[in-house]
Known about the structure:
By secondary structure, the protein is α/β, with parallel strands linked by helices. It is 39% helix and 11% strand. The protein is built from 9 helices and 5 strands; from the N terminus they run βαβαβααβααβααα. It has helices spanning 15-26, 44-56, 88-91, 103-118, 140-153, 155-158, 175-184, 209-220, 226-231; strands spanning 6-10, 30-37, 60-65, 122-124, 165-167. A 5-stranded parallel sheet has the order 3-2-1-4-5, with helices on both faces. Strand 1, helix 1 and strand 2 (30-37) form a beta-alpha-beta unit. The chain starts with 5 loop residues before the first strand and ends with a helix. 41% of the residues are buried. The mean pLDDT is 91.
Amino acid sequence: MNTKNKAVVLLSGGLDSATVLALAKSEGYELYALSFSYGQRHAWELEAAKRVAASIGVTQHRIASIDLRAFGGSALTDDIPVPKGRATQAMAQGIPITYVPARNTIFLAFALAWAEVLGASDIFLGVNALDYSGYPDCRPEYIAAFEKMASLATKAGVEGRQELKIHTPLIALTKAEIIRMGLGLGVDYGLTSSCYDPSPMGVPCGQCDSCLLRQKGFRENGIDDPLLKASS
């Protein structure tokens, strides 16, 4: 009889979410991975999510389809250029154009719905407030507010059958620390995809904010990013 607690893990296919999936597994949870096809230009990440889920091992991996291109307003869902070659200091100034309006709220609402159906009280999310300090939906106070709202939003919560906990184990870590953690958990980062503007075959551009932060994290660990080695 399986007595493991179930957890819904938001899995984008990127470095952070792969690390969180491996961490949730190491903590003994039965894993239910949730990804989104939301009209993002970097849809190659969904192929990465499939590879990561298979590599780490999950009970189920579902890809929900929603189309945030209906609203646009982001370089990831609209005809807006993805910023390239920015300095780290510039990335930390203001809210970047790669912010997708209300994305984490939408994703967490889907995760909450699936968690209620599964009878799960745990959701894992790979948000990081250090490298992406400009993203309003990656802050600890936002996560705490959503968690409080969730207890009022579901039948299971009102009936006392679900006390939702949103786990954000990476929220106060640097990219280098996240990579170090993941390597210790056996994550194969060669399966992941972080680029905001990859080629049709998934080759990273190497110059968007996400690529540059990823490269910096690997450099600070004294190793090469396996994606750059594979594409060179």
